[in-house]
Every structure is written in structure tokens, then in C-alpha cells.
Design brief:
Strand order of the largest sheet: 2-1-5
Order of helices and strands: HHEEEEEEE
Distance between the termini: 88 Å
Strand content: 35-45%
Number of domains: 2
Helix content: 25-40%
Length: about 180
Amino acid sequence: MNWLQESVTVKLVFIGFLILVLLIPSALINDLIFERSARQSAVVKEIADSWSGDQTIKGPVLVVPYKRFIKAIDSDKKEITKEITENLYLLPEHLKMDAAVKADQLHRGMFDAVVYNSQVKVSGNFARPDLAALSLTADQPLWDKARLEFSISDLKGLKNNPVINAAGQHVSAEPTF
């Protein structure tokens, strides 16, 4: 029996057995960590889906339709003049954007997710375009049909309809697709 207590091989086998036995709780803990991590990702995604995604605000762009006349040849080989409507896109001369962002923490079970609320104020002005440089005459732009366009990447994030104050007039925003 003395050789059994002093044998290096027996000691190595016993140490190897202990390592294998202790790997079981380590594997169980790793599984628990993986499961909790996956559950946290699912909860954060669930909260994000009910909230809103990333928001990108593009604009404003002033879109002014204008009439243009082109010469074409019809089916009878006669030259005719067609009136088409195209758009003139004007960017603001001065633009200022102020945003206030507030972070909130939502709780679901033992998990937390951070969501953001922001209030954005956009102000600016548009310069009168040089129509001669654009090869346009004063009667071509249809100023009464001009529109101001913004683009918001995720409309789900809007809590209320944006308020637009253009030249002292409050104008309601309308979505277009």
C-alpha cells in the first residue's frame, strides 16, 4: 500500500479526476451566464421594439415645383411643345438644430434597458434663389405649391405631430410615402 501513496501516476490520475469533477459546476455556471446574457439581449430588444429605433432627422428642404417646356415630336412627326413639372430643391441658408436628450431606464424583471427621449427644435431660413442662374423665369416657379420636407427615419418614435412655424404661420405636418 505504500507504493500507492507515493506513486506519481496515482496522484496524477486523482488530480485529473478532480479536474473533471470540478469542470461540471464550471460548465453549469457558464450555461447560466450564457442563458442570462441571451435573455438580457431578448429583453433589451423587446423594449427597443416597443419604443423606437435609431432616429435620423433629415432636412429641411424647400421643394418648389416649376414648369418647364420641352419640344418633342409626336406620332405624326410634328413638333409639339410639352409642359412638364419638375422640382427645385433648396437648402436653408442658415440652419440651427437644438436637441435636448433625456435618458430613462426601464426595468423588466431583473434586467434594465436605457431608452431616450429627445425634443428637437429646428430653425433656419431660405434665401431667394437666383432664378437667372438656374435658367428660370419669374413665372416658372409654382410658389403656391412649394412644400417643406423633413425626413424622420422611424415614425414610431414620434409622440405627437411635429409643429411647424413657417413665416409666422403654424402648419401641420403630413406624412408622405
